[in-house]
Amino acid sequence: MPARILDDISVCELRGKYTLEKYSQERDLRLNYERETEISFGEKKTFEIYFNFGEWAKIVGIPDGLIENLAIEFTITRGEEFPKYLLMRSVIYSYMCMQDHLVCSTLVVPTTPPIFEDLPLFGYMVVPNSRVLEYIAEKLNTVVNGKVKGRRNRFCQSCLYKRICPEWT
Predict the structure, then answer these.
(1) pTM of the full predicted structure?
(2) Number of separate helices (H) and strands (E) present in the chain
(3) Where are the beta strands (DSSP E) in 33-129?
(4) Which of 64, 67, 163, 165 has its CA 20 to 30 A from that of 153?
(5) In this structure, is residue 106 part of a structural domain?
(6) pLDDT tens, 13-61?
(7) Alpha-carbon distance 89 to 86, whole Å?
């Protein structure tokens, strides 16, 4: 599964489930789901890790930049929930980076000016820990094996699945 699916799961579990089902049929997930960025900072490298959430899954990710033991992820989104919906993917990128380095972290960098005064101008440094991995495993297990509900949020207008979401019908 592409690492970016973790963003969809963070936004809405139902959206994450639909996205997982859609991309489970694809052969090379990187070509369809990972996007190219216009901003280049450091090197680009495709990572693959196996993650256990009750069953094993291969997660594929391409951070926007990589400088030694620092994965960099650029985002255009600013808002009250920034960077919450990026945290799961940021932690996974840090663990992916640990294939080459002992200690790694992810820098989430906004490319738009801050809207809210309490948000930092330069972004967030995400340092992974085992509790976040446990949380990601629980979320993935719920989305893959459990019953999930949609929830209305500010991302609904751009959701591909809103026509079949019970929250919208």
Answers:
(1) 0.80
(2) 5, 6
(3) 47-52, 56-61, 65-67, 70-75, 105-110, 124-126
(4) 64
(5) yes
(6) 888 888 888 877 766 554 455 555 566 678 888 899 998 988 898 888 8
(7) 6
